Amino acid sequence: MQVAKKSGIQMDHGIAINSGAAASVKLGMSPYELVRELAASNAVVVFSMSGCCMCTVAKQLLRGLGVGPLVIELDQHANGPEIEAVLYEVCQDGQQPIPAVFVGGKFLGGVESLMACHINGSLVPLLKDAGALWL
């Protein structure tokens, strides 16, 4: 938890980061490197805004499935605007970058993609493959 505080990563209530994942995030990383490293070292990462209702939907869906995602609240992060700019580049045209959900180191998409995967039954296998679920 100490490394997360030093790096400026704000945790969602009740979400802890394991020390192995936090240790790989270094101070002074570029926003692109930070996004890449967090996505690669955590089973599920959600880049969120604390007042965003769609972000809340994404986080609640994942928690309801038993997943404890690493949540980065960009409006509370020192490099939030720069990280958001990176997420705009990652998103396809017309897609909202927030919330941005990464599963198993890969960009899944926003709340629409997350819900579509949940409805079509592909979300749970993705989460299992990423090590976020042990069902």
UniProtKB/TrEMBL annotation:
Q: Tell me which domain of life the UniProt entry assigns to the organism this sequence originates from.
A: Eukaryota
Chief place of localization: cytoplasm
Compartment annotation? Cytoplasm
Q: Which UniProt key words apply to this protein?
A: Cytoplasm, Redox-active center
Checking Pfam families in the record gives: Glutaredoxin
Q: The Glutaredoxin domain covers which part of the protein? A: 44-107
Under the cellular component aspect of Gene Ontology, which terms does the record hold? cytoplasm
Give yes or no: UniProt keyword Ligase: no
NCBIfam families given in the database record = GlrX-like_plant
What the record says about family reads:
Belongs to the glutaredoxin family. CC-type subfamily.
Official protein name in the record: Glutaredoxin domain-containing protein
Annotated source species: Carya illinoinensis
Native organism taxonomy:
Eukaryota, Viridiplantae, Streptophyta, Embryophyta, Tracheophyta
